Amino acid sequence: MQEYFIIIISAVLVNNIVLSQFLGICPFLGVSKKLTASLGMGGAVSFVLVLSGSITWLLQQYVLNPFKIGYMQTVAFILVIAALVQFVEMVMRKFTPPLYKALGIYLPLITTNCAVLGVAIINIQKDLSFTKALVNSLGHSAGFTLALVLMSGIRERLEEADIPESMQGAPIALVVAALMSMAFLGFSGLL
Amino acid sequence: MNLMQEFTKGIIKENPLFRLMLGTCPALAITTSVENGLGMGAAFTGVLLASNIVISLMRSIIPASVRIPAYVVIIASFVTMTDQLMHAFTPGVYKSLGIFIPLIVVNCIILGRAEAFASRNSVVPSIVDALGMGLGFTIALVMVCTFREVLGSGTFLGIQLLPEGIPAILMILPPGGFITLGCLLGFLNKMQKKYAL
Amino acid sequence: MADIIKLGLFLMLVAAVAGLGVGYVNNVASPLIEKQILKEKIDSFKEVYPGADKVENESAAYLKSDADPALKEINIAYKNGKQSGVLYLVQSKGYSGLITILAGFDISTHKITAIKVLSQSETPGLGDKAKEPKFQDRYRGKNAATALEVVKTEPLKEHQIQAITASTITSKAVTKGVNAAREHFGRTFVDAKTN
Amino acid sequence: MLVAVISLAVMGGIFGIVLGIAGKKFAVEVDPRVEELISLMPGANCGACGKAGCAAFAEAVVAGEANPKLCTPGGASLYEKIAAVMGTDAGSYEERKTARLLCQGGFEQAKMLYEYQGVHDCHLALANFKGPKACNFGCIRMGNCFRVCPFGAIEMGADGLPVVDPYKCTGCNKCVVECPQQILELVGVSHLVTVRCLNLEKGKTARDICTTACIKCKLCEKNCPEDAVHVEPRSFGSVAVVDYSLCTNCGICAAKCPTKAIQITEQIDENVVREMGTPEDASPEPGCGSCSVCAG
User: Fold this and answer.
1) What local confidence, expressed as pLDDT, does residue B1 receive?
2) What residues 16-35 of chain C have any CB closer than 8 A to a CB of chain A?
């Protein structure tokens, strides 16, 4: 049980997928204007991330390794993720249309979201067992949602702050992200 | 749709990194030295060109509801092929570019351009758009790289500029990437307001 | 129902064509890549242990099951027919992935001839400084008997290695790998000789 | 190599079929008329219709929840187009309304009680003896309406009084709601004659308070051919009021009025393209006038 705890802590805090591994920045900057949109995005990415983490692991274990076609890894993983994202997109358009509109272009961009593919490859690189890979994906999706929610909380308060005109919007979001990633550097000594 | 305008829009008006805020993941990760930036830019432009051509050729036969998996499979297979070919036939270039090629798969710009442009226009504009976007992205990368390399490791393309003690290692760490891109965007907004690019 | 099948077929077709392309390219490229890797290995052997007539991969003989899992390969270098050096291929976990190191030991002098980082995926500009000669030369000529230790400042004692600035995790990982090889070398080659 | 092709093909096939089924099961039918209406809309997302933007308004119109007339920026022309798309008859159309200031007490006209140096806010100024002006009913000239107008339709004039630009005003009623003196009124654009005064004091006191006040001389009432204007009693006194259902814009009352309290505004040109004056710093969302009506 203890390793799972370590895996989650390392995924959420120590090497947070967004703030210390630099993956998944596009949606992180694009969607984090409103809290509801970022929660929705966090949910969608977590769903895709956990599912793709497990499917890609099974794929690697029972298809890529036995047949020695490791080089297919990227193409196969991406295909799985793309199909999953398309599925999530349809489900959200049917059941939560306002959230679907709020996410807009950033929903299909989850496919190329570096975080999702990154976690899938990390699961294989660290050759974790199936349950560990699942826990790792869960941890990273929690880390992603945490970073997104923190960011949107700050950015909503930024609306009122009087920022020089040219720095409004993305530039100030990047500077805030810099400070947050500095804070997360503090966790690096944890494990 | 004059082609020249398509080409230049990728560089300033619709610069993928500064304007559309896409491709930030690889941009922040590898822009610690100018030669990394150039390498990434070259590899990226190659793959974007290839995938834009193929997608714009196939745009009429791809059914809408499976368009994203189809695009993504095409892009990923191009990336793997270029990675293998370069590794086999041009080992020298591969030594410097090798690390970036798998990163290109997760670059949002390629799918973004495929979805927004290549799937709607014919081949020639797609080629021009790919070149424009590639050049724009490379220029943006090099700008970020120069700041980070000069401030972070005190060198420019390997040439030692600042004495050893001065450079702030922070600039090479993740926060440095964020700050550089943020301030650069702010500065460009200022310029854009003044000269209305 | 018909268009579902059509979708399925279309995606199958695209995936098949992609698979074909990648597979074919792989077939063409993989032998060349193997050759590349082999050539690189030979070059690195020469670099780490110059002057060897030939280098044999004798992992089967020396790499017993109880050995440290980090040790991947043990190659013996021969000079005019006599065992003169041992080249360890060892892997250790760095900051963001596995680092493969080639460590060369000279049997007669019990010293590390040199080390070379073959592959690493550390953060560009930081951890990947491990592959620069400036860092790798710090291991040259260290005695194989004492365990190596990473220090942040100027090394005072002979067995200390100065870490790369801002990437101590990578430096520790490389040193851990070299230590694993050093212990194995000490146990099998040095003790066997002395007693 | 063959294995690679087969495995990918099989995976592609499976995902294609799964997505096909999902596409079928989760199909969301979108009414084509909604798209058509959205393209017709002025796209100002001003929220005057009470909906969150034009898309929401289009969906509401198609669903029959919203009355097509609500779109004030669109005006009559949009109303006909919506009726055409929806197949309903055009029917009577409420006229477009813009805000009008019922006061002309500028620096020269109105006598001042004291010089107000407090916070520039109408509510606060009003608290100090009904504002610096002698007239208790007139405009306090602190510019709340100017600040609250999301479309930049109100500018503070040279004489301190707000000036409403009829081309920019969408009739969203925010300034009327904001004004503590209730001195702004939404008036149909075709009605040109307005009594620009709400001073209820008796004629003699009104005259020395403000040179352009209504002194209840009833000349307008006597000379109006349509009997459209009357001095009507109000809570504290009385003032002349125009009945727009009868008024034919003849302007005789304005000519007769000794203190020029009754004014005629110039007819606005309907087919002038109504460019939306959304001020840049109004709100981050492009096109949204942030009049927060949609926020409820």
Assistant:
1) 56
2) 18-19, 22-23, 26, 30
Query: Which residues of chain D neighbour A94 with C-beta distances below 8 Å?
Result: 26-28
Whose CA is closest to A178, among B141, B38, B148, C166? B148
- Answer yes or no: do B73 and A82 touch at CB < 8 A: yes
pLDDT digits (tens, 9 = 90+) for A39-57: 888 888 888 888 888 888 8
Distance of alpha carbon B125 from alpha carbon B181, whole angstroms: 29
Contact at CB, C18 and A71, closer than 8 angstroms: no
ipTM of the modeled complex = 0.69
Mutation site for B-interface testing, chosen from C6, C7, C12, C14 by largest number of B Cβ within 10 Å? C14
Nearest residue to A63 (alpha-carbon basis) of D9, D139, B117: D9
What would the two tokens of residue A50 be?
């956990």
For B2-37, the pLDDT digits (tens) are: 788 888 877 877 788 887 777 887 788 778 788 888
Average pLDDT over residues C148-165: 84
Residue D67 identity (one-letter amino acid): N
Residue D150 dihedral angles phi and psi, to the nearest 5°: -75, -10
Residue type, A179: L
Inform me whether the pLDDT recorded for A160 exceeds 60. yes
- Neighbors of chain A by Cβ distance (3+ pairs < 8 Å): B, C, D
Query: What CATH number was assigned to the domain covering residues D97-276?
Result: 3.30.70.20
Q: Indicate the burial class of C30 (C-beta count within 10 angstroms; 0-12, 13-18, 19 or more).
A: middle
Decide if D107 touches B, using CB distance below 8 A. no
C-alpha count within 13 angstroms, C-beta hemisphere, residue A39: 7
Confirm or reject contact between A183 and chain B (CB < 8 A): no
Does the pLDDT at position B196 exceed 70? no
Q: Does domain D32-86 bear CATH number 1.10.15.40?
A: yes
Distances from the Cα of A170 to the Cαs of A167, A173, B179, D280, in angstroms? 7, 5, 11, 18
Residue D45: predicted pLDDT? 56
Q: Is B88 an 8 Å CB contact of chain C?
A: yes
- Chain C residues near any Cβ of chain B (below 8 Å): 3, 6-7, 10-11, 14-15, 18-19, 21-22, 25-26, 28-30, 32-33, 36, 121, 123-126, 165-166
In chain D, which segments carry CATH 3.30.70.20?
Answer: 97-276
Tokens of C135: 């860092």
Nearest CB partner across the interface for B102, out of A74, A171, A182: A74
pLDDT per residue as tens digits for the range D51-77: 666 667 777 777 777 777 666 666 666
DSSP classification of residue C143: B
pLDDT band at D110 (very low <50, low <70, confident <90, very high): confident
Q: Which residues of B touch A154 (CB under 8 A)?
A: none
pLDDT of C125 above 70 = no
Residues of CATH 1.10.15.40 domain(s) within chain D?
A: 32-86
Q: What is the pLDDT of residue B139?
A: 92
The single-letter DSSP state of residue B172 is G
For A90, the closest chain D residue by CA position comes to D26
Chain C hits for D2, Cβ within 8 Å: 23
Question: What pLDDT is recorded for position C193?
Answer: 54
Pick from B6-20, B87-101, B174-188, D85-99: least confident: D85-99
Compare all CA atoms of chain C with the CA of A83 and give the residue at the minimum distance.
Answer: C11
Q: How far apart are CA D41 and CA D61, in angstroms?
A: 12
d(CA D59, CA D42): 15
Phi, psi of D137 (to 5 degrees): -110, -10
Q: Are B82 and B101 in contact (CB under 8 A)?
A: yes
Q: Read off the pLDDT of residues A61-94 as tens digits, 9 standing for 90 and up.
A: 888 777 777 777 888 888 888 888 888 888 888 8
